[in-house]
Write a structure and sequence with these properties.
The complex is a heterodimer of chains A (about 325) and B (about 325). In chain A, a hairpin with a 2-residue loop joins strand 2 and strand 3. Helix content of chain A is about 40%, strand content about 15%. The termini of chain A are far apart. Chain A has 3 domains: about 90 residues, no CATH class; about 60 residues, Alpha-Beta Plaits (2-Layer Sandwich); about 140 residues, Lumazine/riboflavin synthase (Rossmann fold, 3-Layer(aba) Sandwich), CATH 3.40.50.960. The longest helix of chain A is centred in the last third of the chain and has 19 residues. Chain A has a 4-stranded parallel sheet with strand order 6-5-7-8, sandwiched between helices. A two-stranded antiparallel sheet of chain A has the order 1-4. Chain A has a two-stranded antiparallel sheet with strand order 2-3. Chain A is α/β, with parallel strands linked by helices and about 325 residues long. With about 325 residues, chain B is of the alpha/beta class. Chain B folds into 3 domains: about 130 residues, NADH:ubiquinone oxidoreductase-like, 20kDa subunit (Rossmann fold, 3-Layer(aba) Sandwich); about 40 residues, no CATH class; about 120 residues, no CATH class. In chain B, about 30% of the residues lie in helices and about 15% in strands. Chain B is globular and about 65 Å long. In chain B, about 45% of the residues are buried. The chains are: A alpha/beta (about 325), B alpha/beta (about 325).
Chain lengths: ~325, ~325
């Protein structure tokens, strides 16, 4: 810590002065955070919060701004309860990121963008985003003042919660737009003796490479659509799947509290629970749409969930 | 004038509001009548079905068909009018999406008949009178049309050229569509006419919700004093505006009531209710399953709220009625 009031402000000082950055020096580099981090395990082996904090303390400003750790942290806070020093690591990383943005660095992530010809400016995306990335802007269009959503690409983590919630399909990101996902739903599925199942799976909830192998081991009747977060699920996707003749829909996400995008699991749970209530009102509630939450320790559980769902759907077919 | 366009208006399962919206044209209707020939309008003029049957095929230039398809008669006349008309317009929410009658798809015919003729508290149930499709009387056999198991939209049974949404379509939109027809400037077949492409939020002047605004409890309009300048959703009131096409001129919003969704989904949305559900459920703020149940309890009648006018057109209804 800089105790001399006349000394020039260091990089570490500036990080500490941003709310969230104040716990910087408490880190003694044990690396527990790294062992808990999903990004390190699944996306970027170079990802390392411990090392980033060390870079800041060593005044390696440029290196800190260029580090993937600065940009990839989504604030899931899996590391937070594990840290023996109780450092809110995502807060410190967030402080580094805001300084990086000030310096003109930009996020390397694939982020969402808004099609203004479709956007009605309803602000649903503004309200649902865990990262306060979208905001409304005003523009004069054909002489009339109109409102549109605009996304701050440096805040957006690409979870797709806004894409699923946008009522007009105005927000998209390559690979997770409505058209991209609807295209993967078959138009018509021929009914056979074996029930068919559509699995919408959040890629973060796949706990090991073996989980992916499990998914790929099923025959044709189990179809898998990968989504960036269970919060990307939109009840219309489940309904379109059922309409095509698919017998059931399984949405898989992470456990509440472990969601990579903070609230995606809770959002998916709200949507599927609400859809369930509607099924109930329509006298259709027979468990054909299910949401499961797979914990970080639940390696291989995906097989159990799919098998159980297939058994359930078989029993439904027998009743018919 | 020999070449006046021939128009027809018909009502199937509807409340009559669509007819009223046409009469609301007032004196403009009288002027309009000089430019066109109205060849069929059972609500306002004395025509019989046989008058329509006597017309040549495609003799009617434009037929405005309001009301949902609820029974055999609705369907029979829809087919007849399709045959006799060059252009068939699904006029109003009921023929467009099923409308309020479409909410009957929550139930089935048998339970509806039971409720209406047997268990309604104000009924004299001692006689057990039930409507019969056919009934022998001394003069012969009299029949009523058979009621279907579920309500259908016009497009589910016939080819529709244009959709004109609204419950009812507002009078200024009706007038502008009539002008378009007179000018022979109808857009591409299959289009929605008399409405905007974007949603109600696009034209709603209210202050929209801010970042991180979440909902812990839904309220109904009569339970709170509503701020006339703030988005209803931001006040915890379910408003269908985000998933409803604009074009109505905001009569509900201006009267400080949330949008009910009568203009149907915007361009590109297949299932209005599920898109609205997707938007609104994402605003709920809880990670606790018990609390979620409590919050959902504050949405009384979710199907009737999210699909108020579009249930008959929904995938939900399709799934229910396709079941073996």
């Amino acid at each position: 810590m800089n105790h001399n009031p006349h000394a020039p402000e260091t990089f570490a000082d500036r990080v500490r002065n941003i709310p969230g950055g104040e716990h910087l020096e408490m880190c003694y580099s044990c690396g527990t955070c790294v062992s808990k981090c999903m990004i390190q395990q699944k996306v970027e082996p170079e990802y390392n919060p411990r090392r980033l904090l060390r870079l800041v303390m060593m005044e390696m400003e440029e290196e800190a701004y260029e580090s993937p750790t600065t940009w990839l942290c989504s604030g899931c806070d899996l590391c937070y309860p594990a840290c023996p020093q109780e450092i809110h690591i995502s807060g410190v990383i967030g402080a580094v990121k805001s300084l990086a943005v000030e310096k003109g660095y930009t996020s390397p992530l694939d982020t969402v963008s808004v099609d203004e010809s479709l956007c009605s400016g309803c602000a649903i995306c503004v309200m649902v985003c865990p990262y306060e990335a979208p905001h409304l802007i005003e523009k004069i269009v054909d002489g009339v003042n109109d409102r549109f959503s605009e996304v701050d690409a440096n805040r957006c983590m690409g979870c797709g919660i806004c894409v699923a919630s946008c009522p007009t399909g105005a927000i998209a990101r390559e690979g997770v737009s409505n058209t991209d996902i609807v295209r993967q739903i078959p138009h018509e599925v021929v009914k056979t003796d074996a029930p068919s199942l559509m699995v919408f799976i959040c890629d973060w909830s796949l706990r090991a490479d073996a989980d992916l192998e499990i998914l790929e081991s099923y025959p044709e009747n189990v179809k898998v659509i990968h989504i960036p977060c269970s919060g990307r699920i939109d009840p219309q996707l489940a309904l379109l799947s059922l309409r095509s003749g698919i017998s059931g829909v399984l949405v898989c996400g992470c456990k509440s509290g472990e969601c990579h995008y903070q609230r995606g699991t809770d959002v998916a749970n709200c949507k599927i629970s609400m859809l369930d209530r509607m099924f109930d009102q329509m006298d259709l509630a027979d468990g054909r749409v299910r949401f499961v939450q797979i914990g970080t320790q639940d390696r291989g559980r995906i097989r159990k969930e799919i098998d159980q769902m297939l058994l359930h759907l078989t029993s439904l077919q027998e009743v018919c | 004038m020999a070449n006046k366009p021939k128009l027809a208006f018909y009502w199937a399962a509807s409340c009559g509001g669509c007819e009223i919206t046409i009469t609301e044209l007032g004196m403009r209707l009288v002027d309009f009548d000089e430019k066109v020939d109205i060849v069929f309008w059972p609500c306002a003029m004395d025509f019989k079905y046989d008058d329509v049957r006597a017309l040549d095929d495609k003799e009617i230039d434009v037929c405005f068909f309001n009301g949902a398809i609820r029974n055999e008669e609705n369907e029979e006349i829809a087919h007849l009018l399709r045959r006799k008309s060059k252009v068939l317009v699904a006029f109003g929410a009921c023929s467009h999406l099923g409308g309020i009658p479409g909410l009957a798809n929550l139930s089935d015919t048998e339970s509806i008949i039971q409720r209406v003729y047997c268990t309604t508290p104000s009924l004299d149930q001692t006689r057990g009178t039930l409507p019969q499709i056919s009934c022998k009387v001394p003069e012969g056999n009299i029949c009523i049309p058979e009621m279907y198991d579920h309500v259908k939209t016009l497009a589910q049974i016939e080819e529709v050229d244009y959709f004109m949404p609204g419950c009812p379509p507002v009078v200024e939109q009706v007038w502008s569509v009539l002008q378009v027809i007179l000018a022979g400037q109808l857009p591409k077949v299959g289009s929605t006419i008399g409405a905007d492409a974007k949603t109600v939020c696009d034209v709603c002047p209210r202050q929209k919700g801010r970042s991180g605004l979440r909902i812990k409890e839904f309220k109904r309009p009569h339970e709170v004093e509503l701020d006339p300048d703030t988005c209803f959703l931001a006040q915890g009131i379910i408003c269908c505006g985000p998933a409803t096409r604009a074009g109505c001129g905001l009569p509900c919003i201006s009267a400080n009531m949330p949008c009910r969704g009568c203009y149907g989904p915007p361009e590109g949305v297949v299932d209005q209710g599920s898109k609205l559900l997707s938007a609104i459920a994402a605003l709920i703020d809880t990670d606790n399953p018990a609390e979620l149940q409590k919050i959902m309890d504050t949405i009384v009648d979710p199907v009737g709220t999210f699909y108020r006018f579009s249930l008959a057109d929904s995938i939900l209804s399709e799934l229910k009625h396709k079941r073996p």
